[in-house]
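Now for our specimen.

. . .
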Amino acid sequence: MAEPPELDASERMAGRQPETRGNASFSYAKGAAGDALIVAVRCQGAGTMKVSVKTVNVSFPLECLAGETTTTYHQVGVSGVEKPGTVSVTAPSGVHWSMTIGRGEPPAEDQQ
């Protein structure tokens, strides 16, 4: 489980957190105007972790399972996602997680 999730070939890396246990925060780099923010999380261990992207006021819970590695991708296309920011994770000490922050095209249904 140690490796953070990979991005698609069309997406650009903005930040990465190697395998971590429990709570942590890390920063990610600025993106281009119009980019969506991709939050890819991998976790293992029983418990719920909460991911908060304070710059754009987005947070979501993830249910992690004992003995199973789960990978979840969230794409955020709200105002301000091109700014650099910080991701904070609150997780039980028994939950191992890693994360990749990327930049990419916004979802097709959001384009005007």
The two ends are 39 Å apart (CA to CA).
